Q: What sequence folds into this?
């Protein structure tokens, strides 16, 4: 959620709030967000309850900042949560470390340009501390708290894992198998080919391989069900792709490279 002071500041800038920026949510603030929404063309806000108007106005703020938020409807969905996460990152001043690319999803290269972009296989790795512990998929007694990823995707993967934690919470993550770690860095050739796997650069991560086997399609893969859609949405919001969604196989796999 956006704090009340920031909301009041935005209201004032739009000319719908004349009171103090004091973070006290009173009638002026309540009436202000509704009026601002109507002025922005969200006519149905006239009939919405106060909390919905307040939330819709936050969506409007995010949209004004150029953050993709979907419909201004006052409904908290996955897209709005991702947008809020991005806003919070901006507030915290989370900026890429030296050598990392800025947060621009289209910056990830196509697969054929991966060697030029990421360099030598197995190099430029950085340990990522996971915001929630995972379990090794083939030995669930082993906890995984840090994984090796390429330095250029380190910040992006961290944001994705944090957004996943915020969206689902630990219990749902475990129930959906999103804490079953199937590997990231692994220098090897693609199955049945001579080209290196995207795992060779530490730019791909596998989840729950047992229930998302390589040749399974969306009729069988666990990751193809609706309850894991937000998980893949979050990776896609970071510009990563799901092979399951793109090619309907290897649903366990997300990567920071386009096809
Ligand atoms: Zn994979």
A:
């Amino acid at each position: 959620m956006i704090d009340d002071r920031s909301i009041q500041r935005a209201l004032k800038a739009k000319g719908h709030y004349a009171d103090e920026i004091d973070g006290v949510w009173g009638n002026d603030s309540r009436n202000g967000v509704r009026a601002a929404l109507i002025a922005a063309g969200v006519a149905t806000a006239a009939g919405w309850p106060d909390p919905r108007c307040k939330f819709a106005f936050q969506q409007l703020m995010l949209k004004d900042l150029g953050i993709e938020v979907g419909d201004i409807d006052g409904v908290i969905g996955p897209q709005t949560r991702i947008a809020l996460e991005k806003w919070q990152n901006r507030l915290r001043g989370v900026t890429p470390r030296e050598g990392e690319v800025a947060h621009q999803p289209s910056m990830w290269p196509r697969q054929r340009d991966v060697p030029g972009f990421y360099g030598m296989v197995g190099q430029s790795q950085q340990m990522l501390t996971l915001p929630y512990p995972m379990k090794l998929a083939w030995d669930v007694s082993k906890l995984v708290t840090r994984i090796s990823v390429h330095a250029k995707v380190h910040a992006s993967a961290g944001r994705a894992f944090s957004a996943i934690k915020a969206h689902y919470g630990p219990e749902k993550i475990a129930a959906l198998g999103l804490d079953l770690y199937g590997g990231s860095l692994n220098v090897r050739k693609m199955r049945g080919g001579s080209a290196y796997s995207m795992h060779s650069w530490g730019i791909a991560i596998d989840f729950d391989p047992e229930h998302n086997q390589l040749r399974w399609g969306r009729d069988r893969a666990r990751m193809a069900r609706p309850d894991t859609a937000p998980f893949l949405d979050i990776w896609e919001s970071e510009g990563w792709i799901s092979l399951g969604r793109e090619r309907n196989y290897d649903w366990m796999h997300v990567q920071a490279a386009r096809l």
About this structure: The mean pLDDT is 89. Strands lie at 125-136, 139-150, 180-183, 204-207, 241-242, 253-255. The helical segments are 4-13, 27-39, 50-64, 78-91, 114-118, 151-175, 229-237, 243-247.
